[in-house]
Hints:
The complex is a heterodimer of chains A (354) and B (546). With 354 residues, chain A is α+β, with helices and mostly antiparallel strands. Chain A has helices at residues 41-49, 91-101, 106-119, 135-147, 165-182, 193-199, 217-222, 227-232, and strands spanning 3-12, 15-25, 30-34, 56-61, 64-65, 76-79, 153-157, 185-190, 202-207, 210-215, 237-246, 251-256, 259-265, 273-278, 284-287, 296-305, 310-315, 321-326, 339-343, 350-353.
Amino acid sequence: MGIDIKNLYVNYGGMDVIADLSLTIPEGCFFTLLGPSGCGKTTLLRTIAGFVQAAKGNIYFQSQDVTRLPPHRRNIGMVFQDYALFPDKTVAENVAYGLRARGESGEAMMKKVRHELEHVGLGHVMDRHPAALSGGQRQRVALARAMVIKPQVLLMDEPLSNLDAKLRIQIRETISDLQREANITTVFVTHDQEEALSMSDRIGVMNKGKVEQLGTPKEIYATPRTAYVADFVGAANRINVTVAEANADGTARIMLGDAAILARNTLTGTSRDGILIMRPEDLRLKPRTSAEMQGLMGRVVKRQYLGGKTSYKLALPDETLINVDSHGDDHDGFEIGTDVIATIDPSKAMVIAS
Amino acid sequence: MIRASDLRAPWLWLSLAALVALLVFIVYPVANILTASVSGDQNGWSRLLADPRGLTAILNALILASVVTCTCVLIGVPLAYVTARYRFFGKSIIALLPLITLVIPEVISAQTWLMALGNNGLITRFLRDIGIQLPTFYGWFGLVTVMTFVYYTYVYIGTVAAISGFDSTLEEAAQSLGTSPARSRMKVMLPVILPSILASALLVFTMVVGNFAISMILANRLPLLSVVTYQAAVSEGGAAPVMQSTFATVSVVMVMLILFLNRWIVSRGRFEIAQGRGARPVPITGWRGAVIGLAASFIVIVSLVPLAVIAVGAFTVSRGPVMQWGNWTLANMERVFINAPQPLVNSLIYAGAATLIGICFSALVSYLIIKKRNAVTPWLDYISSIPLALSGTVLGIGLVVSFNSGWLPLTGTATIMVLALLVRRLPFGMRSAQATLHNIPNSIEEASISLGSPPLRTFFKVVLPMMGPAIASAAILTWTTSVSELSASILVYSGGRETLTIQVFRLIGSNLMAYASAYGLVLIAVIIIPIIVATKVFKIDVFASK
């Protein structure tokens, strides 16, 4: 069951938190809303759930308009950041809750409950209370509780952010497996780019109540359309530049001091001013020789050895600082004070409108 | 802002219904009091200014409240400090303290102190026999003594909570920066716990101003605000309620001022304690331990005196006002259970009804206030806390003035008795219900709704069970305080509707101490048995919500 959002407006106290947002989430898609706190991603999720009323616009589940439908009639499964397990009920009763609300009871119902709990690896804790479980177990119970009712859509509000790093990766896999098996349309809210990139079929990067860019994880990472997206998904060096020469093959030639650099040109029309975006891991460092004039001239001012890689800070001739991550053999080989040149594949650097 | 979706859900309609109930039974009576002081043929305020006795009564109330507040702080704070910080012999009986204040009705405290130190008291007579003449217990001496021992526990409880919540690493930090342990305590701990001490001291102040039972029994000819208010209410009878309303207004204004001051202090003094690693009590032995243990035990034992005296008095032979100490009888108890059981029956019915209605109302209205906010709910919050500013006497006058006749005549009915208890104790239940609801995250409810459970079903299936333990302890607190209520019910009761407390009060007035003790002992049993059952059988932490 796909989700269609058409020209949605949500406001709190007269302020538009979400303005004119349209979005289509295809059936069976794992869709992630990614953004910093306050960008409207949780509000959008809660509007899809029905806990927040839309001021204008419509939400469709498949072809059914659910905009005015109260949340308990939307047949959704929801997983919360704080688990929201009923503390006075056992694990089994928590999972059975939604089935009971649908009029089910007896052994048939308990069979479903047991099956779902075994599915998340918790068949042995059915009679315990939530307080006796670990954080990871609690979130698994919450997941089983949401899935056992066979919801039309699964909504998850930062379900991993209360867990420690190791558990996060485990539960991430559990969620992905369950979602794929049930082929259920899922909306997942997070501020963690790694979560978004690793789990999603599609990502919507949100900013100030709007979807700033929509695409597959790879599209979002490799070809960010705005500086905001580039910055939020992965790290990026941003330098304000003026394009010296726009080539017919879609590249732009940019002069930084005496050195030149080639980058993909996304500027349109006659505009020449833009932002040059380069990811630290895409830059390559070389010792500087006088002949080399292709790349960024810089001097190493900081060096951080991180085991698998070394993080450098370079000062460009105009004292702008950029970050470079060096991998490979001898990645920590450049001393502080060394003059270096940083090169980048033209397909990995790009100029976008400022 | 009211939206179409709000009209469909039941919450707005429930809020409006609750608002109507609160307007009729709280706002209307209070408004009547405030207007009645000036609406008669004579202006109550000019009469008050021309009446030296009335003015003296107000002044005396202020003096008494100030003195008792000071003595309570002087006893309560040191006691709290040593119990929170030290372990010593006899400490476990101090844990009984909160129980004692709640369990012993004020009227009984006054009675038993009188039986011990009054003109014909046990101790008075003993000392007189060996040649020591005590000053008369009526007046300042008795008032200050009894009120101190009744109210110091409020300071004690407030201070203990503040000290145990205090992060002792702050103190260690101060010591590491070079201040001595004693100085560290003064410089670091005192400012943090001071707001709590002040808040509980102000609570004591308002309770002394509004106190009825002890004042009536011990003030004798000393004019006190609560006493003259009651006397004005009695003497004006069915006539225009001018003077009682004037005095009641003075009391309301005084208590309101204190409550605002209290709120200001609490809001200014709320320091965030980042991590509450409370200090572990350290053992204290040797002569210092003995002294502290003895002093603390002395206070507790003195607080327990009423229980002992009343237990003895209930089985002592008497002829009229004369107690024949040492001669035992069951006649007094026979009277309570067989000859005149009506007060016992009345108490059980009225307090039971008030508790049941009060708890249901508090649970629902608190839920509306915290979880289902709409245009009406802030008013529910404000109005339901008004009774905090009303002494029992004021509330009683308000109910009598409003429902004596007119469109809703309730005088003489059981309804008005239940109403008096219900309104007086409503803030108790509200406060405890709201505290628990704050601790139930919204996501729990949303989880239930997302699983297909409609809002009302969610309330009953998920929210109510989670509130359960808090509701049970609030119910027991409401029950105990309703059973011991005197000052409001004594104004609204009519013949045949006496409760146990009213009966005890009347018997003390007639100086029939043996009968009073018997009814008092039953009264304490009625209070204490539910507490024991709740804590022992149902494992409810009765004092958790306090």
